[in-house]
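Thread: Newbie trying to understand structure tokens

Hi all, I'm a second-year student working on a class project, and my supervisor (Dr. K.) asked me to get a predicted structure for one chain before our next meeting. I've only ever worked with sequences, so writing a 3D structure as a token string is new to me. If someone could post the tokens and maybe explain what I'm looking at, I'd be very grateful. Here's the chain:
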Amino acid sequence: MFQLLADECVLCRVCTNVRGLGLSLIVHLTLLLALVGPRWLIAVLAVFSTVAPPPLPSTPYTLTILTPPPGKPLPSGAVCFQAGACEKMTPGVPLKIADSADIVFDADDTRQLVPVLKAYGGLIVFVPLLHRASPKAAFWPDGSRAAVPATLDHWVRIRLSNPSYWPEVGRLCAIANSDGLMEAVAAFPPEYRSQLGAAVQSRMIELKSSGHVVGVGLRLEAGRPAGVAIRAITLASTRQIG
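---
Reply by user tm_fold:
Sure, no problem. This is what the structure looks like when written as tokens:
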């Protein structure tokens, strides 16, 4: 009986010693980290601070068409010509660019927007962000006010994400959108689709291709047919031809 009590005392002393050693070790480690930790952290941060941040991805298009139905994804790029099974074109019948066709414009690096709008009866319109087919104000490219279309359905519309890039558009923003609650849109009237279709059809003839056009990639260039250079054409199928 007494032997058991003695053993328990010895065990208690061992436990006490172990706890003391553990506590001492924790205190020393804490002091060591307090002294060395900040220096180590500063060294790591210094190494990473010398690494240049990765470049931001470039935006392939600053002009984005609004014609495709809501929720339909736009192509990320348009750099090649694609075609499907050949379809005979009826002589004298112009190609039509449907409302559902994807129309993508390159960045307007040389500020061709205003001259092309002037040449093809286009407008600068201001639309609510949630109702982009219902303009609230409209201007001719020279800055004079125009009759506001009842709707922009069937118009070829280009969102102007940075309107101040074009001084003419920037001035109109100060007049019609001083509170920033609307969005500037370049809009070509429905009849412009026929002129655009003729330009696309001419390019397809050059490529000896035919078919149902479901997408085009364009660059604004005043003086060209329909005021655009045709950079890409996508037909209903996806056999690459150029």
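A couple of things are worth pointing out once you decode it. Residues 1-12, 40-89 have pLDDT under 50 and may be disordered. The longest helix spans residues 2-49. Feel free to ask follow-ups in this thread.
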